[in-house]
Amino acid sequence: MAFVKVAALDEIGDGEVLAVQADGKRVCLARVGDEVYAFANNCSHREFPLSDGEVDPDDCSITCEWHGARFDIRTGEAIALPATRPIPVYDCRVDGEDILVDVN
Ligand code: FES
Description:
Layout: E1 4-8, E2 17-22, E3 25-32, E4 35-40, E5 54-56, E6 61-63, E7 70-72, E8 78-80, E9 89-95, E10 98-102
FE2/S2 (inorganic) cluster (FES) binds near residues 45, 66 and 68.
């Protein structure tokens, strides 16, 4: 377990996404209310950056901008085609004004 600071909380507004790096991995953050979720910044369909996608706060999902696949950002589960494989999700926590992620 090695949490590293990847961003400040005020860099990401409610319902927004932010691309960051953590231990050399491309990570996408998504904020829904007070919660911040972290997951691989690669769609499992064709590797498009999910940070270009759109978050739906109602079901905590993100839609890939390229072909419209959707993923549950809490579990990584693929919930809409054309993606069939999940994406990795990472432990994420907010400590004061810092967003910390553990990708290991
Ligand atoms: S690359 Fe994401 S849906 Fe195709």
